[in-house]
Amino acid sequence: MANYDLIVIGTGPGGYVAAIRAAQLGLKTAVVEKRATHGGTCLNVGCIPSKALLFASEKFEEAGHSFAGMGINVSAPKLDLAAMQAFKDKGVDGNVKGVEFLLKKNKIDVHFGTAKILGTGKVEVTANADGAKQVLETKNILIATGSDVAQLPGVTIDEEKVVSSTGALALKKVPGKLVVVGAGVIGLELGSVWRRLGAEVTVVEYLDRILPGMDGEVAKSFQRILAKQGFGFKLGTKVTGVETKGKGLKVSVEPAAGGEAEVLDADVVLVAIGRVAYTQGLGLAEAGVETDKRGRVVVDKHYKTNVDGIYAIGDVIAGPMLAHKAEDEGMALAETLAGKAGHVNYDVIPGVVYTFPEVASVGKTEEELKEAGIAYNVGKFPFTANGRAKVNNTTDGFVKFLADAATDKVLGCHIIGPEAGEMIHEVCVLMEFGGSSEDLARTCHAHPTRSEAVKEAALAVEKRAIHF
Ligand code: FAD
Ligand code: NAI
User: Which of 8, 145, 328, 353 to mutate to test the pocket of ligand 1 (most atoms within 8 A of CB)?
Assistant: First the structure.
């Protein structure tokens, strides 16, 4: 007889949420985690620590640059990086302890160790503490092992000078010159942190644009804002090598399309060119679990692998590598296992870049709509015309709606501006209910709020914005 209904491998946002939901629904559940703490990449070395440093470095920059303009005279702020890192660590600690508490509260058995799947219904756990092995039996296994840093061929990450996001979150000194490889979310968020704290940041990106996948107009406008802040960009450029020279680094780059090579000086190089599914040591091949060309576990629409009783969710399967996507899949899977109708709507998964200003988006981009041949209307409203933004002197950015030309159904929304990551959610709810720009335009919005720009952009779809 199986000991458990469900064993979850990995307690990142996908795994721990799946475990809690399964326990709520009465399934006897255990988790196996190989880190010393729960929360996975997101809580330990991802979303949470990066947002702590983004928050603190934003305050630092504000104190240095924006206070005087509001009549607040303070002497130039001094950075105590060790204290800022301690602030970050305290935030992480609070969050991972929160997950520990929730697992306990839901009576979930916790095994700290490395899991290997021995086949349907059998998971071997090698304990972190003493290396002892035990085999757990279960009706169902959930692979929620997440992802790891993608390596740049020929460049060795030492997490001191050549760092991944993990090292970049733990630097002990502000680098004089930081070269970021990859103008994706990690590069721009962590680049922002170190630029605000004093580094000269140059971002080298292979493509001819930043944030591939985001709406092109939004990415272009965001790049201009970042350049104004002092970011240097080398687009359409590839890194061919990183060499240590004395105390510094020499980064060799050349145009992606071919051309003359160049060498950039750096104190630290951040490699942020994406992440790859993490399945090392899980025993997938032996268990016969299929993976795709990129090493991701292949699942059907109910998250089942090709092997009965084995499921997978989160970063280890296809789709956006986002914590909330992993969480929602965890909920859906647990509900399906408990005989309910678990479901994730992949058309309404918001994405947020937590820089200043923030960039938030949901649904389709203009490029995607054009490619799909869908006729659409655009409604745009700039924050320069929003009263609250004006009075707070934070007018960079805009809200952009994309609505079906025939039905007015909202197909996408893209926002650049402070708090965009909070503002996007009213559009997510609207889209979840199949709403139109007219629906949003007729919804009363409190004044004075930045969210009025969302309503005005919805009005602008029919060219009737009031304040622009
Ligand atoms: P993970 O969080 O990676 O968890 C997997 C867990 O499985 C890990 O704890 C691992 O130790 C464990 N594990 C692996 N193999 C085994 C094994 N064999 N046995 C036992 N345990 C195992 N996403 C957002 O939505 N918002 C953000 O702001 C954001 N910021 C990020 C910032 C950074 C710097 C990074 C790197 C990522 C960020 N992400 C963000 C992405 C987010 O962290 C991931 O999408 C999310 O963590 C995926 O969750 P998961 O549960 O699938 O996997
Ligand atoms: P990413 O996929 O967002 O960006 C990687 C960038 O590197 C791309 O622009 C790509 O074109 C470029 N690139 C790839 N190879 C290159 C090369 N050889 N030379 C130069 N550029 C190259 O990946 P990133 O930023 O590493 O983030 C990984 C994952 O973590 C993402 O999937 C993201 O969703 C998630 N994440 C989410 C955050 C959020 O939601 N706020 C924050 C941080 C990470």
Answer: 145
